[in-house]
Amino acid sequence: MVAVPTSAPTSEAPRSRGRRQRLTLERVIFFALFLGLPLLVYVLFVVSPFLQAFYYSLTDWRGVSAQQTFVGLMNYATLFEDENFRTALWHNGILLVVLPLVTISLAYALAVLVTIGGDSRGEVKGIKGASVYRVISFFPYVIPAVVIGILFAFIYAPGGGLLNGLLSLVGIDSQIAWLGSPRFAMIAVLVAVVWNMVGFYMVLFVAAIKAVPSEIIEAARLDGCGRMRLSVRIVLPMIRENVSTALVYMGIMALDLFVFINVMTPNGGTSKSTEVVSRYLYETAFQKSNFGLASAMGVVMAVFTMIMAMIVLLASRKKD
Amino acid sequence: MSTTQTTDAATTSRTHPDSAAPPARRQKTTAGDRVFGGVAHTILVIWALIVILPLVWTVFSSFKDSRSILSSPFSLPQSWNFDNFVRAWTTAGIGRYFFNTVIVVGSALVLVMLLGAMCAYVLARFQFPGRTVIYYALIAGLTFPLFLAVVPLFFVLKNMGLQGTYLGLILSYVGFALPFTVFFLYAFFRQLPEEIGEAAQIDGAGDFRTFFQVMLPMAKPGLVSIAIFNFLGLWNQFLLPIVLNTDRDKYVLAQGLANMQAQQGYQTDWSAMFASVTITIIPVLIVYVIFQRQLQGGVGPSTNK
């Protein structure tokens, strides 16, 4: 749920287990317990809700079990005529492009500084104090998103907030309510998310860059390759897989962001300036009790998530 | 940045590598390197400040009273008194939420590690029909957005009579943390040498004993880092509790904090809010400091090809 699996699943069958496995009574009980219990929980609480969501999206269900008529794709039609939904979807679309790009570029830049920022001659060396920077950068990742939301709501507060306070130190007397202003609210939320996630991907990229054989980097250097070229043209392609996994996960996050939006800008901000689908879905389901429509939103987002993931993964594979 | 300079440096070192005395790799730092190093450190220090400053500000503010937080956001607290913390812990109910979170996250963590390890072990070390299907069905759970499932999940729990109970919330946590857990432990169990299982069996250990007394202890490093990630993920979980856990007395921390903030706007009791935020961050900080190495190692174990 939270962290990022960085390797592709191993699909081949396990190395042959030698002899045939005998089916004893103990083994039957063993299988029933070891496989049955986890799968029971998984099917009951994960698989079945997902499947039901698809079905509900085709009904006009409002939570009272007796009244549940099959309405086909009507919910989907309603959705795309709903201006709020379109705004929300548009915001998710922008975030889908901007959030991964900003987070991952920043994370990569920091990772490069830390790993190959040392001397340009001799062995490939990291910068001094690399581990200190790494430890500090990673910390925001472990703070609960709710807390980050509240923390940044304080930072952005019009009076007494850290940001306006800092601005007044350099002589700008701003009384801007950053989260209340339709112009800045989305950017303000975005900054909080980036603050939260950069360190995690930085550490991921540091591990990946360290796994690049150092002969390759040294050879490139001997050929007169500068740091900028080295990091963009040599190292980046070599850790492509990690970058694309990171893109997919930041993309999934951009299509969600429920916690941040809900905490920082309740009700989707001034004139819906920070409305996103996940928050609108929550409101539609649990405040308006329109479960059919809410499920349709969820399905739309699930489809988008999958398309996004497939595009990124295919694009990164094609360069081979 | 200083690309041209560094390229120069690299070329000069290439044109006369044998001249002077190159005592292997102990050359003096070039000017380009120094400029680059300076720029790099400046950027990293600025970034580190951006990370640290809000946290320090929060901790300081949690010792001040609401008035001085608003009037002088940068001053140091006048006295280090813990009134705000006491008020947050008791009046604002953070203590209660903290307790609930420990129960829910603690139980869910133990359960998901046990069930996840069992499931991953069977999938990784036994060959049976349907194995691949189960594996992929589990992995698919990693990609579906959680908010698609919460609406039906609410009713699943309601129909089972588990809505608004600790158990319902715990089982939901377990279900949604399971794919991640199995995914990583699967890789771990596959790495363990086959001979060990065989040796245990020749010695007469059954499947259960082989698992609990041989395999589980061997997988300990993997279990530890996945448990930490699960702990953080569950401790931070927000959507599941606000949907499923509607009873105020059973609120978890994240939920209680969000609720507190929503009710106050950000006008009234700033200092209790800051204190609550500090209380929430501290356990995470402790876990982070203790397990820092495993955490960062855990991010990239599979990147070492």
From TrEMBL, chain B:
Q: Which residues form the ABC transmembrane type-1 domain?
A: 98-291
Question: Which Gene Ontology cellular component annotation is one that this UniProt entry carries?
Answer: plasma membrane
Specify where it is mainly localized.
membrane
GO biological process terms on file: transmembrane transport
> Where does this polypeptide localize?
Cell membrane
**Which residue ranges have biased composition labelled Low complexity?**
1-14
**Region (Disordered): which ranges?**
1-29
* Membrane topology listed for this record: Multi-pass membrane protein
Give the family from UniProt: Belongs to the binding-protein-dependent transport system permease family.
Keywords per UniProt: Cell membrane, Membrane, Transmembrane, Transmembrane helix, Transport
Q: What name does the UniProt record give this protein?
A: Sugar ABC transporter permease
Transmembrane stretches in the record are 35-60, 97-123, 135-157, 169-189, 223-244, 270-291
Q: Which domain of life is it from?
A: Bacteria
